[in-house]
From TrEMBL:
Keywords: Glycoprotein, Membrane, Methyltransferase, Signal-anchor, Transferase, Transmembrane, Transmembrane helix. Gene3D superfamilies: Vaccinia Virus protein VP39. It comes from Populus alba x Populus x berolinensis. It is found in: Endoplasmic reticulum membrane; Membrane. One of its GO terms (cellular component) is trans-Golgi network. The lineage of its organism: Eukaryota, Viridiplantae, Streptophyta, Embryophyta, Tracheophyta. GO terms for biological process: methylation. It is a single-pass type II membrane protein. One of its GO terms (molecular function) is methyltransferase activity. This is Methyltransferase. The keyword Transmembrane applies. Belongs to the methyltransferase superfamily.
Length: 625
């Protein structure tokens, strides 16, 4: 007889099965609780890592605590589960030695000396190799002060911010700059305008139309401290002023400290970093550029960047040589030969001599190339370039051929299309878009882009109070696209350096100039052609998504820190993943930051990171006893 009854076996089996079910259920509950605890821990840590940086947004130098912006602050707990390093483990980036306080990586005089002096090539851009890149923060001078607000900044700058008095001594007679106690004063003088830039511009205005809105963009080659550009601004003309980093120490730096657009640059062997047909007017006042040499190469480059019908103004040697030749310490014959050579190059470029009066000579580029093509039977050189992208200007050598203009159907037609007069020009559909030259962009999309930026700037005003308080003057847009950001700011006392990343497709910098704004090409894996601490606000929309796989974004952020003034502001727009990477790095750069929702609300995958560079300076070198 078998041990036990069948009923006992069944009860034992049921008991084991129930025990197993209860055990498994218990484990499930335990793991669920553990999982839920871990699940909530990550966003709490992330929120802490953000609020540790700046829980109270009102503490930011550049971010307001306006109640209307509270809803814009990004709620990571609700929307995101991304694990990043806590601020406890932030990699602090140290300050550089004070000897780097004025460092310009791609125009470093020490590096430049290694390069060819022929055609001034050693003063062109020569950027550090990957091994030479600095991993430190460029320090401000020990007594650095917030620059004067515009328009006072046009006439004054703090001595401690740019402690260089060489120009005040070297150019004392010419009234470029004077030292008055703890500040510099800019009287508006220049080598060829002893009565001041204002009176000099009035003289030009008698020769060409400066006040009817037809001239808006200008380029000043060899600009000094940019007084010409400074005094054009009140006439609604914006000039791109450039000069090399040379023996006239810090001239471009002074220009930017004054709140006047400027770049470090030189006419040497490479094209200027601007598109074709960009400027309505070009200017040289004793700029020492040898216009008649190298087969007219430099005048050919001016021709490339001048708009059809644009003007070239020349003052200083050799103009009016009969009066000045003794003071210029050159022979009359030498100066006459130089002027004759310049006149000859201008004729070969099909320019028309408008007038020569007093110390000024003015030429005008033709509206189109109909007659110029025909004249090649007479002038064999320079020929008209064949297969060339006229806008290509990033590390591209100049050529001794005329940049072709777009074709026209009649001799009175403006090649490439007519631009509206300023200020209508800012929002009128640019000729490059009207003609279909920019792939994927038509008049409707252009209008949509303007509306988009109008909304964005209205949003920025709510979260960044200095935007409407006049504390920002120099602004850089790192990825300017159609120039919508600059257009939306046109009513404020600011100017924008519109940067289009080099080799962008489509290339939109020509559109920006047609709208009456200025800008430059730039590869963000390299440093900008400017001095440290020259911009108040930097806008970086989508830049890091473009460059994160091309180069180390830490070095892009360090370059932004170099050119940003203490207490300056940066607005990043990107995916939250990219912004978290950025914030992790900037937490170690003495920046305070806050991630916020897109202006359209939390469901847009693009977010906004507003960051402020805190005020700090380098330490003064102690004198040895």
């Amino acid at each position: 007889m078998a041990n036990g009854s069948p009923k006992q076996h069944q009860l034992e089996a049921k008991r084991k099965r129930l025990t197993w079910i209860l055990g498994v259920s218990g484990l499930c509950v335990l793991f669920y609780v553990l999982g839920a605890w871990q699940h909530t821990a990550a966003p709490t840590n992330l929120a802490q890592s953000i609020t540790k940086v700046a829980c109270d947004v009102s503490k930011f130098a550049g971010v307001s605590s306006n109640p209307s912006s509270e809803s814009a602050i990004l709620d990571f707990n609700s929307h995101h589960q991304i694990q990043i390093n806590n601020t406890d483990s932030v990699n602090e980036i140290p300050p550089c030695d004070m000897s780097y306080s004025e460092y310009t990586p791609c125009q470093d005089p020490r590096r430049g000396r290694k390069f060819d002096r022929n055609m001034m090539k050693y003063r062109e851009r020569h950027c550090p190799t990957k091994d030479e890149l600095l991993l430190c923060l460029i320090p401000a001078p020990p007594k650095y002060k917030t620059p004067f607000k515009w328009p006072q900044s046009r006439d004054y700058a703090w001595y401690d911010n740019i402690p260089h008095n060489e120009l005040s001594i070297e150019k004392a007679v010419q009234n470029w700059i004077q030292v008055e106690g703890d500040r510099f004063r800019f009287p508006g003088g220049g080598t060829m305008f002893p009565r001041g830039a204002d009176a000099y511009i009035d003289d030009i205005s008698e020769l060409i139309p400066l006040t009817d809105g037809s001239i808006r963009t200008a380029i000043d080659t060899g600009c000094g401290v940019a007084s010409w550009g400074a005094y054009l601004l009140k006439r609604d003309i914006i000039a791109m002023s450039f000069a090399p980093r040379d023996t006239h120490e810090a001239q471009v730096w002074f220009a930017l400290e004054r709140g006047v657009p400027a770049m470090i640059g030189i006419m040497a062997s490479q094209r200027l970093p601007y598109p074709a047909r960009a400027f309505d007017m070009a200017h040289c006042s004793r700029c020492l550029i040898p216009w008649h040499q190298n087969d007219g190469l430099y005048l050919i480059e001016v021709d490339r960047v001048l708009r059809p019908g644009g003007y070239w103004i020349l003052s200083g040697p050799p103009i009016h040589w009969k009066k000045y030749w003794r003071g210029w310490e050159r022979t009359a014959e030498d100066l006459k030969q130089e002027q004759d050579a310049i006149e000859d190059v201008a004729k070969r470029l099909c320019w028309k001599k408008v007038v020569e009066k007093g110390d000024l000579s003015v030429w005008q580029k033709p509206l189109n190339h109909i007659k110029c093509v025909a004249s090649r039977k007479i002038y064999k050189t320079p020929h008209i370039c064949k297969s060339d992208n006229p806008d290509a200007a990033w590390y591209k050598d100049m050529e001794t051929c005329i940049t072709p203009l777009p074709e026209v159907s009649g001799s009175d037609e403006v090649a490439g299309g007519v631009v509206e007069k300023w200020p209508a020009r800012a929002f009128a559909v640019p000729p490059r878009i009207r003609s279909g030259s920019i792939p994927g962009i038509n008049a409707e999309k252009f209008k949509e882009d303007n509306d988009l930026w109008k909304d964005r700037v209205a949003h920025y005003k709510n979260i960044i109070s200095p935007l409407t308080q006049g504390r920002f003057r120099n602004i850089m847009d790192m990825n300017a696209q159609l120039g919508g950001f600059a257009a939306a700011l046109v009513k404020y006392p600011v100017w924008v350096m519109n940067v289009v990343p080099a080799n962008s497709n489509p290339d939109t910098l020509g559109v920006i100039y047609e709208r009456g704004f200025i800008g430059s090409y730039q590869d963000w894996c390299e440093a900008v052609s400017t001095y440290p601490r020259t911009y108040d606000l930097i806008h970086a929309g989508g830049v890091f998504s473009i460059y994160q796989d091309r180069c180390d974004i830490t070095h892009i952020l360090l370059e932004m820190d170099r050119i940003l003034r203490p207490e300056g502001t940066v607005i990043f727009r990107d995916t939250v993943e990219v912004l978290v990477k950025i914030q992790t790095i900037t937490n170690g750069m003495r920046w305070k930051s806050q991630i916020m929702d897109h202006e359209s609300g939390p469901f847009n995958p693009e977010k906004i990171l507003v960051a402020v560079k805190t005020y700090w300076t380098g330490k003064a070198k102690q004198k040895q006893q």
